[in-house]
Structures
1.
Amino acid sequence: MNNQFPNSIRIFVFSLLALGVFLLALGGYIPSLTRAVLTPLTSTQTWVSRQFKGLEDFFSAPRDVALIRQENEELEAENARLEAQIVELQQQLLEYEILSALLDFARAQPEHKYLGATVIGRDPSPFLNYIIINRGSDDGLLRGMPVVSQNGLVGRVAQVTAKGARVQLITDPSVRINVQIQPSQSEAVLTGTITGDIRLEQIPQDAGVSPGNLILTSGLGGNYPANIIVGQVTSVRSPEYALFQSASVQPVTDFKDLDIVLVITNFNPVEASPLIPTPETP
Amino acid sequence: MISILLSIPFLSLITVIQTSVVSRMPLLQGTADLVMVVIIAWALQERVKHPWQWAITGGILTDFFSGLPFGIYTLSYLTLTLLARLLGRRLWQFSFLIQLFLTLLGTMLIHGMSTLVIFLQGTRLEIISVLQSITLPSLLLNLMLTIPVFIIMGDLANQVYPQKTEL
């Protein structure tokens, strides 16, 4: 070809071709031409690339799955650890809130000395409302010491062992507590029931009692210190010909969720039984 | 011998679960008596040779944790063990039915004795309230416990008294 066409003609032909391309570009024909040329190329490229990617995934997948599984296991372990930490922190927060409330209660009544105790069990008999706490005679606990929560009266220590004690709740059916109704300051006797409710008895007929009145310990009888809140009157029954009125009481303490309690350690209950005369046998 | 040695830690654990977990999950005012169900299930296992020892251990441990007069649970569990052995020998094909029957009977027996003791101590009791709030819910919970406890105690008896095969 070099022999047939001299350089000058080749230059002329290429110049013409270049000019033609330039004119086609000016006329807007180039994109359609390139599209016509590139479309099959792109399709081919896509197909080849897809096949290559498939092959690459096929050969590299096992290694990736193993890696992903390992990472997954690590993340699951981390997740479990964090979840356990959250539960632990929530528990600590709950305990902190209870302790904070107990501290507020103790600060509000500074005349008493308190010892904190955790509730570790309940009486196996459903007929008795007792709790078991993790403080005993080794910690200075004595029978008869009053027990309170951040809300109010819980009960009193009924039996003590070296490392634990059984506390009789105020809902126990054998409980009798002398109380005072506020604001009328009338005296009454608070009793537990077999169903776990508490009620007021022996309220004088002339005593002004109405729902919403507060019930506080009166201190009479010497079994409990005075002025510890017990509950609130919910309803009053006043039969026309009865000697006394009676009332239902909502306790301030939620006995089902008792976790931590305070034992009042500087209160010495009065043992009244020697003072009660016994009938002499003939 | 293994059975006797096993009874103290096993029943201690069961009593701790009873006071720490089971008694804190009441239905109305009723709670299940896990120790009683365990002792009945153990006494009904044919291979078991020392059910009395289990009844006494379980009874003493429960009496120790309870505010009821000492001996009520021991006496009740011994009575139930006696009945379980008597009925189990005669009706050995129906041991699970006997378990259900004795659970019902045991619940009524223990609750009856508890009611009597509390009444004699001077506490007013309304029998209808006792039945509705305590006895019937407790009975339901005890009956619900019988199935898993009976299976577990059967497996435990097989472990403690393995069956001898003749060659």
2.
Amino acid sequence: MVATTVAHAAPRPELRWGGDAEGGAPYVEADPADPSRVAGFDVEIAQLFATGLGRTPQFIQAGFTTIDASVARGDFDVALSGIEDSPARRARLAVTIPYYEFREVLTVRAADKGRFRTLADLRGRRVATLGATLAYDLLVEAQARDGIVPVTYEDDVHPYSDLALGRVDAVVLDQILARRGTRRNATLVNQDAPLAIGHYVGILAPGSTALRDRMNAILRDAMRDGRLEAILRKWDVWNEDQPRLYAHLLQDPSPNPIASSSLAPAGGPRPMGAWQGVRRYLPALLSATLVTVTLSCLSMALAVLLGMLIASGRVYGARPLRVVLTAWVELIRGTPLLLQLFVLYFGLAAFVQLPAFVAALLGLGLNYSAYESEIYRGALEAVPPGQLDAGRTLGLSERQILMLVRAPQAFRLALAPMTNDFVALFKDSSLVSVITVVELTKQTSIFAANIGSWVVPGAMCALLYLALSLPLARVARRIERRWQRPA
Amino acid sequence: MSVLAVEALDVRRGGRAIVSGCSFHAERGEIVAIMGPSGAGKTTILRALAGLDPIAAGRITVPRPVGMVFQFHHLFANMTAHKNVWLAPVHVLKRPLAEAERRASELLASLGVAERSAAMPHELSGGEAQRVAIARALALEPLVLLMDEPTASLDPERRGELAATLRRLADEGRTIVVATHDADFARACAHRVLNIGDGRIREGAARTKPLSE
């Protein structure tokens, strides 16, 4: 009888909410034993919404940098993941009232506490943060004003570990992340004076204003009756800023009674238009293009040089050398470039601290050298043995035969696949953004995040890549043609 | 007096005897033709003489460098006919480039292919490529010239020219060993014809033409 009732009861509708479990505690943290179970204050706020709406919360994992696009597409009803309020978000999405006010704080090495008190003290120095955040906007402003060098990371762990290692001189992030960072790195301290004030909000698809308004009512109720405070206290992020925020929000019942952050222009949010964005970001895109080109050319040069050495070793070397080189090539080809970049930059940091650009150059160069070496080895072995016999009967040494006869003929065979590889490397260079090198793709994603749309930045980025790769293909074809003709 | 001597030569490949108990000699200015069907071991003997393949037993006495003209010429595909000829003098004999280039031009002219100097190997006819290959072999001024199946890529008219060229080179004092299965050609140019079958040189090799002098 009971079972029948349950079976016939309409299932409670779901509240699908998105968050990034990579963000970790205290926001959204996956249970190591069961990654589909999550915990954190954002999880409990989602539960608060679900309860208020009479629904069952259903967590959907979403990447932090693409969470806006996911919620706009309707992948889930609301996103909660320490998401910052911003004019761009308000313009493109339905945004709840804030449920938390945070301070942006400056973290420095303890030894520098007296020296680096504000961003103005950091002229010419590298300051780290997460890309596409209020803190990043803060650093872009400080770049123009104080001459600091912003360095963006994809996660909030490595800014602090790199600060401890001396790769950067300061980190700017909100106080929750800063506290987590200083807890992990005993040599770091947080400066007291906040650099800016921001807020965490829930974001919904632009058409979901009715749901947003119901969520605002649920949040205000929870502020009034202490449930929100209980959640934040439980996760140890409650402080004296929150009662002030709540008082303000409870006094004014309008959907967005306060500025998104202390950086937002007075007189309400004025999001940047696409063309305004183009003008503002074009110089940065062009300099990022220069990074892409320089990195690609240098990496390819390294790959060609190492590839030739590896190929010669595999064709001419003694057996132990051949075995070692074969193993090396298989190791490099069999593991992802992304992993190699992480190992070079972060993994080796305890022994040797490579600058990001050098690590990127080495990573791309070493990776592609494995592929180049295979091309050259195949090409060397494709040179007819009669050519080598002819060289031997003339008394040329094996080395002379290689340099004068075999390698030049092999090079002609290798030219077409090499050109392909260079175009591939050129595009793969976008992967180095994970080790803080801001190249064209990374700069585009920052641009897109800041104006809240991929359309214009994506088109500009594609045009820049094409503008570079098309002439490159032409030059390569011309070299190929010339090489076919008599020398 | 023998310039070249082969005594009891054995050459094996993968455990199989290709040439066994082969002995012959050649004198200064002599053209010796090694005759035999395909697979009889002619090329193997020349490769052993040129030092390209290891020998299993026996003794080879030959003054180095030895000039070798391959059946398919094997001109270096990545350089002009001219450079094919001056490459070894510059890189092996360390001759000055200008001198080596001049000598290469002379050699190509003496073989009648001066006007093909700037051509790449793939642009040459079979006969032209062969003459460039001879020039390349002669550039090192070898006392002994080896030629493998030189008539394979020539029409009958060109064969006569080649025979004349070889006689001229022999008259200049070079010893020439020609591997061929072309009996007419062998008779036309060689002082002596050796027959080879099953990897053995057969006795009864008679001097077909007297050595000049």
